[in-house]
């Protein structure tokens, strides 16, 4: 019954646990500790202050918009990469990962330069009356950029594995392309899409480097929660910083649970099909 | 990359020429705007005043120091995270013990936590007002506003990178080979080096490359713990911001171009390693959500 | 395990040269908008002292002072506010009698909060009164982190005190109005400059005269113009050796000669070139044309000295807290 036990468990598990405890768990506990030292009334006053709430609204709404964009554009990009053959396809495929490889500060200054009123895109857009840099639209673009690969990379494999027979069957039944897409293909892609979307949203909530350059950082208008935590730190209002950071931590844990559930569903789905 | 049905040219949905061209044009337009343009603008601005000016900007002592510090941080953080990744993957995939799924979630936490939260958390451990602050002060050990703090924050952010690549692969490979080797009398180390390592080397390298890329580019977490001392604790990404606020756009973009080059090299290495079978095709985006890993089969 | 030990050893070996501090190296922690002037001062100083390295750290001065207490190992501070050095005194980093160690209360040069508006002065901003108008957006940094911004706060208060003849309620109302007109409080003076110049937010930025000169020079007088108010507050830029750190590094002498240099004709010339008003009469005379006359009031005369200011205005729950409020 019992399998032969491989050696090295105490050492490898020991290293893993000690490292995870020191590097991952300890700091987060210290944060919770600091936030908890505030007492419920003070804690609530800080995390529900007008400025904090405004920052949640800015962060969440921009993250939603960016994720929505990535849902559509990411799916289209994955579709094009899997279904179509065109020159430079492999290069585009490799470039999809650029937002993960490019440091966020670099992304921040280059997006800002592009979308500022004197930039390549900002100039033409401003003649149309659209301001991007230093507005919520800028935050959205920075978020969309940094989380772009998630949807593409979760949808791509599913699209590749899609059995053409399903489409053919629907075609012989006389369905239009659109109805086949929405009734046959899309349901098959949905678990992967949801998984990608939840990862993309989670990443957008926590993004900092790319955003602070382009956002304008105006309280109540373009100030994200991560920046508010940072500002409180610079004011040496440590407890307030801890409280706001703890809100972000809670949001991260919720998103971690959501992404794991979505991921599990997506995998079960692909296995079953 | 190869698809069995890529040569059948039966029209599938979305293959109508008009639709195809429109979608392709739209997608490529957005790729150009969102991905290619940011990369291009860095190069254009870095060289906007000519090559000599670019070279002078890179050779500036503070920029050189920032490069050195960034490399040094990676030299410390990446090997340690690699050792951690290997240990975690070995423990989780080659053994059965209660709480494996919990451990998987634990390892993945840094992916979900904002870098700012990570930096702030470290301040509450090692900062003067933190848990160990007074003790460190008494012992005259500097963690915050110094290299150790930068390394620690970088290690937090990139802790899952190597493990994430190895775990699904080692899980899929099973334990038969290692069990055979040990039953023939090979030691644990020897089994790992001669049996396991050759099978995971590409995935390992892949994880190391990604980990390195993130360590060298980390901004949020490091900006909290570094103290931003020009020529002392300013890593390259922080130096880019500093130059940007110094009205030194060319210097800033010159420094950024180094990191952009690193990003491109990373992408190329990635593609090469993916041809060797490493990378995303072998792993889910999240470990703990993967049922095949979390259900311990006796 | 051996591998980890090896890595640990390598780590220690690599980190050693970075953290070791030689006696020929100084870290100068300074205020945010002093980046350019100290880059030039350092160059001039190093020309006289070959082999010496001066590192700079810039940020809001209160942020800097707290960072030093938190462990930022600055050998000297060149701040823009006495209270921030007093904070270091209180924490045992700087000697009690630091103001007697260098001439003029240890302030080698001075400036004052002044205005910079967009070309043509479209909102017609002339004096402090205009900042409290409903249609004017004002930019200055966060007074919690920036000494620069606290001067602005004090200067506005000083003006209001004269105007309302000491009616405290009216003074507070006036200053609150100005604060209400600030759309964003950056943590340092330079970030505020970026907000005003690059992000094109606000009608007027209030910062040291030296910085308004620097912006006009950098971006062109066709884009921005300086406006000097009728009265402002004398802003002295105090310097001190951070004894606790300098002792540890063995840099006391170098630190002293560095700060002495700031008073020398060469040092004063560099400061004047970057828009600071200087003490050296010869140097001041040479740059006379560039500095318009202005009536400057002193903290001692209006507020009864810095300790009083600290207690009444900057302390937790002080006047500044009520005005800055929950921002």
From TrEMBL, chain A:
Its main location: membrane. Pfam families: BPD_transp_1. Residues 56-259 form the ABC transmembrane type-1 domain. It comes from the Bacteria. The keyword Transmembrane applies. It is a multi-pass membrane protein. GO terms for cellular component: plasma membrane. The chain crosses the membrane at residues 12-33, 53-82, 94-121, 133-152, 180-201, 238-258. One of its GO terms (molecular function) is ABC-type sulfate transporter activity. PANTHER family: SULFATE TRANSPORT SYSTEM PERMEASE PROTEIN (PTHR30406), SULFATE TRANSPORT SYSTEM PERMEASE PROTEIN CYST (PTHR30406:SF10). The complex is composed of two ATP-binding proteins (CysA), two transmembrane proteins (CysT and CysW) and a solute-binding protein (CysP). NCBIfam families: 3a0106s02, permease_CysT. Belongs to the binding-protein-dependent transport system permease family. CysTW subfamily. This is Sulfate transport system permease protein CysT.
UniProtKB/TrEMBL annotation, chain B:
Residues 67-274 form the ABC transmembrane type-1 domain. One of its GO terms (molecular function) is ABC-type sulfate transporter activity. It is found in: Cell membrane. Gene3D superfamilies: MetI-like (1.10.3720.10). It is a multi-pass membrane protein. GO terms for cellular component: plasma membrane. The keyword Cell division does not apply. It comes from the Bacteria. The keyword Transmembrane helix applies. Its main location: membrane. Keywords: Membrane, Sulfate transport, Transmembrane, Transmembrane helix, Transport. Pfam families: BPD_transp_1. The chain crosses the membrane at residues 21-47, 67-90, 102-125, 145-163, 249-273. InterPro entries: CysW_permease (IPR011866), MetI-like (IPR000515), MetI-like_sf (IPR035906), Sulph_transpt2 (IPR005667). The complex is composed of two ATP-binding proteins (CysA), two transmembrane proteins (CysT and CysW) and a solute-binding protein (CysP). Part of the ABC transporter complex CysAWTP (TC 3.A.1.6.1) involved in sulfate/thiosulfate import. Probably responsible for the translocation of the substrate across the membrane. This is Sulfate transport system permease protein.
TrEMBL record, chain C:
GO terms for molecular function: molecular carrier activity; sulfur compound binding. Coiled coil: none annotated. GO terms for biological process: sulfate transmembrane transport. One of its GO terms (cellular component) is periplasmic space. Keywords: Periplasm, Signal, Transport. Pfam families: SBP_bac_11 (PF13531). It comes from the Bacteria. Residues 1-22 form the signal peptide. Gene3D superfamilies: Periplasmic binding protein-like II. Transmembrane segments: none annotated. InterPro entries: Sulphate/thiosulphate_BS (IPR034408), Thiosulph/SO4-bd (IPR005669). It is found in: Periplasm. Belongs to the prokaryotic sulfate-binding protein family. NCBIfam families: 3a0106s03 (TIGR00971), PRK10752.1 (NF008022), PRK10852.1 (NF008106). This is Sulfate transport system substrate-binding protein. It comes from Mycoplana azooxidifex.
């Amino acid at each position: 019954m019992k399998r032969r036990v491989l050696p090295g468990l105490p050492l490898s598990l020991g290293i893993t646990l000690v490292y995870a405890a020191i590097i991952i768990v300890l700091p987060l506990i210290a944060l919770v500790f600091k936030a908890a030292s505030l007492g419920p009334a003070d804690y609530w006053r800080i995390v529900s202050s007008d400025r904090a709430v405004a920052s949640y609204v800015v962060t969440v709404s921009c993250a939603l918009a960016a994720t929505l964009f990535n849902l559509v554009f990411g799916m289209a990009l994955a579709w094009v990469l899997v279904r179509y053959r065109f020159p430079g396809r492999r290069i585009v495929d490799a470039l999809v990962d650029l937002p993960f490889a490019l440091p966020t500060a670099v992304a921040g200054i280059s997006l800002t330069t592009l979308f500022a009123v004197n930039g390549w895109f900002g100039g033409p857009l401003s003649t149309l009356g659209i301001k991007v840099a230093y507005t919520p639209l800028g935050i959205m673009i920075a978020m969309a950029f940094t989380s772009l690969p998630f949807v593409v990379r979760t949808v791509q494999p599913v699209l590749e594995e899609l059995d053409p027979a399903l489409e053919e069957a629907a075609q012989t039944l006389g369905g239009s392309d659109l109805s086949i897409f929405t009734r046959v293909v899309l349901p098959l892609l949905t678990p992967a899409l949801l998984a990608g979307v939840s990862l993309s949203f989670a990443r957008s909530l926590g993004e900092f480097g790319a955003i602070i350059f382009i956002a304008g950082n105006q309280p109540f208008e373009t100030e994200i929660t991560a920046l508010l935590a940072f500002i409180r730190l610079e004011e040496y209002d440590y407890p307030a910083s801890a409280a706001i950071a703890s809100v972000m931590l809670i949001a991260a844990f919720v998103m971690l649970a959501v992404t794991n559930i979505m991921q599990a569903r997506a995998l079960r789905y692909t296995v079953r099909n | 990359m190869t698809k069995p049905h890529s040569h059948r040219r039966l029209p599938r949905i979305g293959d109508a020429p008009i639709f195809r061209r429109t979608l392709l044009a739209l997608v490529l337009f957005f790729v150009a705007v969102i991905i290619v343009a940011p990369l291009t603008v860095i190069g254009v601005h870095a060289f906007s005043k000519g090559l000599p000016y670019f070279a002078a900007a890179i050779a500036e002592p503070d920029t050189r120091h920032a490069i050195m510090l960034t490399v040094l941080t990676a030299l410390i953080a990446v090997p340690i995270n690699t050792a951690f990744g290997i240990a975690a993957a070995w423990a989780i995939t080659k053994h059965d013990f209660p709480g494996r799924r919990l451990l998987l979630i634990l390892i993945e936490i840094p992916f979900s936590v904002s870098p700012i939260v990570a930096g702030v958390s470290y301040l509450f451990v090692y900062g003067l007002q933190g848990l160990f602050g007074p003790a460190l002060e008494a012992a005259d050990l500097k963690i915050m506003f110094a290299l150790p703090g930068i390394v620690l924050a970088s290690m937090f952010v990139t802790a899952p990178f190597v493990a994430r690549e190895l775990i699904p692969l080692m899980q899929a490979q099973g334990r038969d080979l290692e069990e055979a080797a040990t039953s023939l009398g090979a030691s644990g180390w020897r089994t790992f080096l001669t049996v396991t390592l050759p099978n995971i080397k590409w995935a390992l390298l892949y994880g190391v490359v990604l980990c390195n890329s993130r360590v060298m580019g980390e901004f949020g977490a490091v900006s909290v713990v570094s103290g931003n001392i020009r020529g002392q604790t300013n890593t390259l990404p922080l130096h880019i911001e500093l130059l940007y606020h110094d009205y030194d756009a060319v210097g800033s973009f010159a420094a950024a171009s180094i990191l952009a080059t690193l990003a491109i090299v990373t992408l190329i290495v990635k593609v090469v390693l993916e041809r060797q079978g490493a990378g995303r095709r072998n792993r889910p985006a999240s470990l703990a959500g993967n049922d095949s890993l979390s259900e311990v089969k006796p | 395990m051996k591998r980890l030990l090896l890595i640990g050893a390598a780590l220690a070996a690599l980190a050693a040269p970075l953290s070791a501090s030689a006696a020929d190296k100084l870290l100068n922690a300074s205020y945010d908008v002093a980046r350019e002037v100290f880059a030039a001062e350092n160059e001039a100083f190093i020309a006289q002292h070959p082999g010496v390295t001066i590192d700079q750290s810039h940020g809001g001065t209160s942020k800097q002072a707290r960072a030093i207490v938190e462990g930022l190992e600055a050998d000297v501070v060149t701040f823009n506010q006495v209270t921030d050095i007093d904070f270091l005194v209180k924490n045992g980093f700087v000697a009690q009698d630091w103001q007697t160690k260098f001439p003029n209360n240890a302030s080698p040069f001075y400036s004052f909060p002044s205005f910079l508006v967009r070309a043509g002065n479209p909102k017609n901003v002339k004096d402090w009164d205009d900042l409290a108008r409903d249609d004017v957006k004002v930019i200055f940094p966060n007074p919690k982190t920036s000494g620069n911004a606290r001067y602005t706060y004090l200067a506005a208060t000083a003006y209001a005190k004269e105007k309302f003849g000491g009616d405290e309620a009216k003074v507070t109302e006036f200053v609150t109005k100005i604060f209400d007109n600030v759309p964003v409080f950056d943590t340092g003076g330079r970030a505020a400059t970026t907000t005003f110049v690059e992000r094109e937010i606000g009608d007027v930025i209030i910062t040291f005269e030296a910085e308004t000169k620097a912006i006009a020079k950098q971006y062109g007088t066709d884009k921005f113009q300086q406006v000097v108010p009728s009265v402002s507050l004398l802003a002295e830029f105090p310097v001190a050796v951070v004894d606790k750190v300098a002792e540890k590094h063995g840099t006391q002498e170098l630190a002293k000669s560095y700060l002495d240099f700031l008073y020398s004709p060469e040092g004063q010339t560099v400061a004047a070139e970057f828009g600071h008003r200087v003490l050296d009469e010869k140097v001041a005379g040479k740059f006379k044309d560039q500095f318009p006359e202005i009536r400057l009031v002193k903290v001692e005369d209006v507020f009864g000295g810095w300790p009083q200011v600290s207690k009444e205005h900057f302390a937790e729950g002080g006047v500044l807290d009520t005005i800055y409020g929950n921002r």
